[in-house]
């Protein structure tokens, strides 16, 4: 079978042969073998044969265009013949497969449009049915908010104009309907953006053909687009840029960049040199085919629950000067740059779950000899990794993909990747803090797969500047993350001694009651008793009785014994417990689980919750990962709540750690837990409502007994309880965001007032970090925050707020316009 797939032309011959004689030989052969096992050949023949043929058709269609010893043109011609012969019996299956590949394999767009063109030339009715099926699918994808897939479908339809399947005037009419959306009132800007983007992104493929047939209409269309682009609001752009500096490469908004590329394409008389166009070889056949008119297509109206794609900023890292040898990299405003990047994005989108396949597909990109492919691949991958608010795929996918690419191209790609890393390091001062976080995670993970080898001495410039500046902070955080993937001594050994100031501390437990020198500390005697009690497996009640002996520093000696917050009691118990469980994560988790009741008793007040977090930090301050997982565990077990964690992270006690990465990992993890909690209860409520609705429907259509009525009453009570839980959880969620934003405003306002009073520049490394962390909160949790925008605007982000802080909120609001 493998040899057949290696020679597609030969395979098509055998396929025809089998196809023509299967009713005689194949079925008789099946009957012969089945007769020995007592099977029923006639029944099996009817069910297995169509399925086998359908699977084979799917395989043929999906694999056309892959590497082959035969030419693409001969493969397409052979496949068209196979499909034409099967249309009488498998037309619906063929339609479904072709519609699916148009949506899911956009990197082979022109291969499939050519195939459809050849089928249309042989069978006009099939061509019409395919166009109608594509329009139905386009409507369905828009209805389901699958906007990326809808882009591919429209692009496919537009390329069918080149294959003489669709008439050019009807395609122009569809584009005009799309652009009419820009005239709609009271709709989000992102809706109009999407329809404009669809039209512009099709023009590299079909612009030349449409201009030759409908130049006046196309000029009018482009004029309308230009007018729209001039009046667009672009307040959101700074929030989405990877770098604040415009040099060496401008960070352009995606529609502005695409518009400049299309303008240059038009100036070049729509001549484009990079798109694979196999239909040119069949022009004599295709031009004789009858064309179809697209049915009138009106863009669906705006719905409140529509989720349009967010705006983007085009990531630029390289230009022609960075790839001095070999082919020249197309300029940033050449349409070839858009086509190459679009195709590479499509390959990643199709194969991202299989890193080996994805890497192989990227490196076998058609036309790779005409471009510096490695530079394009690295730029596209980093562009996705740094995309704001979030990458298209999980961060670790990009790490594994780059590792796989280095393995497949060991002689060239690692050098390009090293060059890119060096460039990113040099531009850290103007890089967005969120992107620096992702760079830290990627680089440390990447190093761990290559024995942590790196030319650290090349980065020695970071040792001569303030350690709070981006470069030394970056190196320190990379070493911190690397230690998580290795061990402390390994990190000490891999970096030069001159970097000692940036090497993380050894992650040891700090127990203040460790030895007898601590005997003068308050509570020391009780720690010994508590430690022995834990070792001897004393009950919770016995330990709580021992803890009553701990004096309360918040009470005067002559005060009556009360239930006021006792910080020393928390310190004595938690320090002792965590010290005994310090051996590993699992020991610590087990200890927290076993003494959960005591911890809940000690933290029944807000002060208690804050203090328990303070103690966790004190004992594990040299082990940020342990702090993160213990805080996570305490939230899960409800020892502390999310608002307490937020207040602790913004407290004065943690001010010196404010710009550390682990602080923000804890905060984002806390917010995600809160969001998941709300979503879980909302889901339970929806399920209960659905169940009640079905029950009521039964009551209307059927006679119900008393048990059914009781069940309905129980469901109503359950819904009432869940409704209260949802309202309570949403109130807690809103409070969490209010706490976070209020603390940000207080910190930033204090800094701005201090700078103004002292007549100093506000743009310190701390300020850049803080203001970009505020942006990060908005971007990473934008879906949830949108629910509370009214409250935020009324209580916190008012007109009186300093414009530096208010600008962040306005940028966020502009994303949804």
UniProtKB/TrEMBL annotation:
SMART domains, sorted: MIF4G
Domain MIF4G: 54-266
GO CC, alphabetical: cytoplasm; nuclear cap binding complex; nucleus
Keyword entries, A-Z: Coiled coil, Cytoplasm, mRNA capping, mRNA processing, mRNA splicing, mRNA transport, Nonsense-mediated mRNA decay, Nucleus, RNA-mediated gene silencing, Translation regulation, Transport
Classification via Pfam families: MIF4G, MIF4G_like, MIF4G_like_2
Coiled-coil residue spans: 671-739
GO function terms (MF aspect): mRNA binding; RNA cap binding
Any one Gene Ontology BP term: mRNA export from nucleus
InterPro entries documented for this protein: ARM-type_fold, CBP80, MIF4G-like_typ-1, MIF4G-like_typ-2, MIF4G-like_typ-3
Subcellular location: Cytoplasm; Nucleus
UniProt keyword annotation of Cytoplasm present: yes
Family statement: Belongs to the NCBP1 family.
PANTHER family: CAP BINDING PROTEIN (PTHR12412), NUCLEAR CAP-BINDING PROTEIN SUBUNIT 1 (PTHR12412:SF2)
Protein name: MIF4G domain-containing protein
Species annotation: Amphiprion ocellaris (Clown anemonefish)
Name of the gene encoding the protein in the UniProt record: LARGE1
